[in-house]
What we know:
Blueprint: E1 4-5, H1 8-30, E2 35-41, H2 45-61, E3 64-70, H3 76-88, E4 94-97, H4 107-112, H5 125-133, H6 141-152, E5 161-165, H7 172-181, E6 185-189, H8 196-200, E7 205-208, E8 226-229, H9 247-250, E9 256-257, H10 264-284
Parallel strand pairs: 1-9, 2-3, 2-4, 5-6, 5-7, 7-8, 8-9
Helix pairs in contact: 1-10, 2-10, 6-7, 6-10
This protein binds NADP nicotinamide-adenine-dinucleotide phosphate.
Amino acid sequence: MTAKILDGSAMAKEIRAELAEKVAKLKSERGITPRLSVILVGEDPASVTYTRMKKKACEVAGILSDLIELPADSTQAQVKEIISKLNADPSVHGIMVQHPVPSHLDELDILASVAVEKDVDGISALSLGRLVLGTADYISCTPQGIVTLLDRYNIPIKGKEAVVVGRSIILGKPAALALLERHATVTICHSRTVNLPDVVRRADILVAAIGKPEFIKGDWIKEGAVVVDAGYNRVEGKGHDVGDVDFEAAAERASWITPVPGGVGPMTIAMLLSHTVKAAEKYAK
Ligand code: NAP
């Protein structure tokens, strides 16, 4: 292996320690404790795990957190009523609706009802519009985690050829926009992209956000590329979760690479906490 590891676990730990200091300062100087409300509709097992991880991470950093668990058959009006109450509650600084919500609900409409100043997950229509305008306060946590990881490792983005594979609202599209905002030349790929390997071979910075285990092969990676694997896939009999990139083969050609697990995942939670603290700081002002 020639690539160096972009250690998201270590970086997230560092960020969480910095946040704990900020939280303590907000409490002692302003009497404000940052508070995040997470809404979980239904009992999707992965979502249950993610929301519990978020609650635990908040507690460790000294951030108050509420996990509001709603039944899977909740109506659109019931979910929006809860959001409306949280929007109006001055003690709540951040609101996050765990994705995905059950299919009978209109997720975009639910996300749009989160007040933009509390949209710490950055995925409401208004937040995404602001990202396009270059005026977003909060960029969706996984893309923000990716850019922060690159920044903290002093990896330049400006002028680089970036290829993002995947165009979901929570990950691919905002990741591409965040890299564009930082002056990368960005190509977005998806399931209808023709000759994907050749497009990926152009990437100085590759972001994989597909959801297919080890889909991107080692010989698609440009020598010296920075490979950021946001994928998280459970593979029966493998013994551990894998990303969207064939890690072993890609690490022979890349200069930097994120492991899975321990790369992008921990950064996502760190960004959620960071955005909540930022929202509380803005409220304090
Ligand atoms: P998603 O909504 O399913 O989107 C997947 C994207 O991949 C789509 O844009 C799809 O293209 C594209 N795609 C599918 N097959 C392809 C192919 N053969 N060639 C090129 N593109 C293809 O998934 P997501 O929510 O963005 O998540 C992607 C991955 O990231 C998953 O493994 C997920 O678990 C992981 N994830 C990780 C974190 C974290 O914190 N680390 C957070 C969120 C998600 P079309 O648009 O054409 O269908």
